[in-house]
Design brief:
The chain is mainly alpha-helical. It has a domain of 156 residues: Serine Threonine Protein Phosphatase 5, Tetratricopeptide repeat (Alpha Horseshoe). Helix content is 69%, strand content 0%. It is elongated, with a radius of gyration of 23 Å.
């Protein structure tokens, strides 16, 4: 079973970050760009310098760099950025972002435009374009957690057993997911989101990264590691855990010959999925297999053991 979209909560965070980024860029432009064309480079206002100095004295340097507001260097660059970011057609925005990056190769706003295009393609359910835009963001912002996680999800879910570049794609997904975890604390709280809401979204982000790592291990048939990562995802996501995670956890336990743990995970996959959905049907099929194996006679259990069907949730 394949998924071409990131979780709604991550997409919501992406949209909030984009809105916050636009506001920050606009504020930064107002503070740094001269009111009229001038030959001398723009300099920060006294208030902005004082705020920056205060922030530097109260936060680690790493976080200061991560949360530094992107700033246009000229009015022309800012106007071009504004025109591109106003586009609501994903293909036109992608073209405008590409043109902007070529025209302003030193701009700090290049990644922002590609992230906006990534969000628009994601809303359309276009996984290939979402991945391409995530990679474009990472070209300019290699530590962007949302782009890292988007790329990781697209790669892990859309890589199949007989893909010629399967190993490379899974390795890229693993690396992106680990980097997303490493840089998750650099995501600034978006405006309009309180501390509790932001903490919940960040737990979902970390949980989704562990899901990716679990899926990568699952597709590599590294079932013990898959179990560890899926359980880490569940610990972060709790009641928001996707039924597919429990389904893959059930199969991982099954492959590890832990029938009782597999049954418990299959029950949770059934409880968390919609009646008649593919996940529910696969979970019920897996549970029926497991019930036949759960006998007191271990020798009989071995004799009756049958292989997991190929169309079980090895590919979402």
């Amino acid at each position: 079973m394949e998924s071409g979209t990131v979780k709604k909560v991550i997409l919501a965070l992406m949209m909030l970050m984009l809105a916050a980024g636009a506001a920050v860029a606009q504020t930064a432009a107002a503070q740094t760009l001269p009111a009229a064309p001038a030959a001398a480079p723009a300099t920060p206002s006294a208030a902005a310098s004082a705020a920056a100095s205060s922030a530097a004295s109260t936060a680690p340097q790493a976080n200061q760099e991560a949360r530094k507001a992107p700033q246009p260097k000229t009015q022309e660059e800012y106007d071009a950025f504004q025109a591109a970011s106003a586009l609501t057609d994903a293909a036109k925005l992608e073209a405008a972002a590409t043109e902007f990056a070529q025209r302003y190769p030193e701009s700090e706003l290049r990644g922002y435009l590609f992230q906006q295009a990534m969000g628009q393609y994601q809303a359309l359910g276009d996984g290939d374009k979402s991945l391409a835009m995530a990679r474009a963001v990472l070209k300019y912002e290699p530590n962007n957690p949302v782009a890292l996680l988007t790329a990781a999800q697209m790669l892990s879910e859309r890589t199949h057993e007989f893909d010629l570049d399967r190993n490379e794609r899974l390795s890229e997904a693993e690396a992106d997911a680990r980097n997303a975890l490493r840089h998750a604390n650099e995501v600034p709280p978006p405006a309009g989101m309180n501390a509790a809401q932001f903490a919940e979204v960040m737990a979902q982000l970390r949980g989704t990264a562990h899901e990716v790592l679990g899926t990568v291990s699952f597709k590599r048939a590294e079932y013990f590691n898959a179990i560890k990562e899926f359980n880490a995802a569940i610990n972060e996501e709790r009641e928001r855990t996707d039924a597919v995670v429990y389904l893959r956890l059930a199969v991982s336990h099954d492959k590890s010959e832990d029938v009782q743990s597999a049954l418990r995970a299959a029950d949770k996959a059934i409880a968390g999925s919609a009646t008649g959905s593919q996940v529910r049907l696969l979970a019920e099929r897996e549970k029926n297999r497991l019930l036949k194996l759960a006998t007191p006679d271990l020798q009989e259990q071995k004799d009756r053991r049958s292989p997991v069907p190929e169309n079980s949730p090895t590919a979402r």
